[in-house]
Recover the amino acids of this structure.
């Protein structure tokens, strides 16, 4: 029962952090420095009236107001409770499934014991998922990944490697201090994440004759690598490309060929999968899937069929692109 209390507390904390992230998402991309400040009370984006504290309760405030502002009756975007609910669920997920989950234990006498290393790692994971949420919705809204989020994230990710090392050690050489191995894991993760993404950006720009990817994506994946290590960065990029290609292809087939799809949200989704299920994904890709292919020779026809469908989809996209041009 006591563990459940902490888990519920983590979800409630996540909802409150999500409320603050809504402020970050709205204010940080503003061009006016005065409106970019994260301090001060929240105001209605429609009429500018100050929002009362009881109307600003995470999720509950939106529900009680039926999605409309008390001051002017204008509609409040569903994105606000969505961000709060999503952050609450991610905080709960970190508490339940993260390798650095709940750092508090209770003995038989009811005494609380806090593991300092786990507490630091737990806090860094909560910070990491919060930054992913904020960057995702900013990229959806403005198609930018602000330096004010990614650069401090890179620095924190590297510094985090000195103590808790949530990226894990870069090697198992016991003769090298553990703190140094975890620090190197974060540094190498940052370099690999940013370096590979920059290389793809450079190559795509040369092939297509225009910027294929923003520098914000380079810094964003560098930050992810600083937290998750080089393997987590590569897995994030792989998953982000797969999901982004599927969503982009579907959008193009439905007539949204000229739609510019931000890459940041798909990288964020890939990072979350890498955070919670990296080992399971590797087992599927390198053990389960090859073994299934060996046991089922006819699976080659399945792969062939998928390749033919992909080529057909590409053909349709090219034809639509030529007509649009």
């Amino acid at each position: 029962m006591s563990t459940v209390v902490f888990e519920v507390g983590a979800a409630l904390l996540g909802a409150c952090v999500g409320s603050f992230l809504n402020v970050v998402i709205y204010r940080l991309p503003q061009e006016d420095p005065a409106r970019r400040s994260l301090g001060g009370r929240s105001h209605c984006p429609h009429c500018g009236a100050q929002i009362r504290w009881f109307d600003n309760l995470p999720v509950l405030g939106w529900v009680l107001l039926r999605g409309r502002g008390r001051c002017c009756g204008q509609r409040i975007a569903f994105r606000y409770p969505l961000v709060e609910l999503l952050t609450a669920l991610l905080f709960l997920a970190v508490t339940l499934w993260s390798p650095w989950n709940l750092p508090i234990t209770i003995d038989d006498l009811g005494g609380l014991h806090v593991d300092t290393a786990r507490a630091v790692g737990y806090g860094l994971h909560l910070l990491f998922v919060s930054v992913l949420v904020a960057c995702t919705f900013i990229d959806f809204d403005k198609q930018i990944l602000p330096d004010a989020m990614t650069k401090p994230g890179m620095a924190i990710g590297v510094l985090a490697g000195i103590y808790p090392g949530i990226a894990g050690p870069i090697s198992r050489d016991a003769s090298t201090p553990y703190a140094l191995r975890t620090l190197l894991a974060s540094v190498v993760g940052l370099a690999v994440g940013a370096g590979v993404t920059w290389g793809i950006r450079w190559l795509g720009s040369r092939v297509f004759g225009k910027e294929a990817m923003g520098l914000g994506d380079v810094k964003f994946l560098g930050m992810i690598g600083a937290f998750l290590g080089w393997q987590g960065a590569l897995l994030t990029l792989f998953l982000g490309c797969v999901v982004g290609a599927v969503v982009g292809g579907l959008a193009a087939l439905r007539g949204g060929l000229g739609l510019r799809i931000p890459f940041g949200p798909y990288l964020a989704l890939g990072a979350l999968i890498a955070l919670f299920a990296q080992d399971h994904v590797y087992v599927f890709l390198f053990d389960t899937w090859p073994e299934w292919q060996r046991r089922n020779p006819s699976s080659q026809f399945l792969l062939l069929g998928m390749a033919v469908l992909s080529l057909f989809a590409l053909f349709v996209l090219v034809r639509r692109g030529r007509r649009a041009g």
The CA atoms of residues 55 and 70 lie 8 Å apart.
